[in-house]
Amino acid sequence: MYIKGFDKDLKCRGFQFEVGKVYDTGYTEELELCTNKVFHFCDSLEKVDYYYGCIDEENRYCEIEVLGEIIYDENKCGSNKIKILREIKGEELDILKGHIN
After folding, report:
1. pLDDT tens profile 47-60
2. Which residues, other chains included, contact 97 with Cβ-Cβ below 8 Å and sequence gap of 6+?
3. Phi and psi at residue 86, in whole multiples of 5°?
4. Residue 31: closest CA among 63, 66, 78, 100
5. Are 45 and 96 in contact (CB under 8 A)?
6. Cα distance between residue 95 and residue 77, in whole Å
7. DSSP states of 44-67 as a string?
8. Residue 68 DSSP symbol
9. What was the pLDDT predicted at 97?
């Protein structure tokens, strides 16, 4: 499962996202993390916690589907094309948060 973190308004770095929508950076070559060539996400809530702290009750988390090329380092992943599948909340989010401690 890939998870993307957001602020309370479902924004990341000022970019507005919506559940169910596909997002494409328009870049297809030389993708790099920490640039606008990719949308960032992680492969666990534990890693997302570093960027969007789970202790902050206003932050939100969504499961995403990677539709483009994927690049990664030990902490985060990125892709030029993703789909926001669904928001992770309620009991499911509580269970995932329980694995962080």
Report:
1. 998 888 877 788 99
2. 45, 54
3. -165, 155
4. 78
5. yes
6. 22
7. SHHHHHHHS-TTSTT-EEEEEEE-
8. S
9. 76
pTM: 0.90
Both tokens assigned to 99: 């694995």
Strand 39-41 with 60-66, pairing: unpaired
Q: pLDDT below 50 — which residues of the chain? A: none
Residue type, 62: C
Residue 84, both tokens: 């926001």
Nearest-angstrom CA–CA distance, 45 and 21: 21
C-alpha dihedral, 95 to 83 to 35 to 8, nearest 10°: -50
User: Looking up tokens 């009750």, which residue turns up?
Assistant: 57
**Opening angle at CA 50, ends 90 and 9, nearest 5:** 50
The pLDDT value recorded for residue 101 is 56
What was the pLDDT predicted at 56? 75
Close Cβ partners of 14 (under 8 Å, ≥ 6 residues apart): none
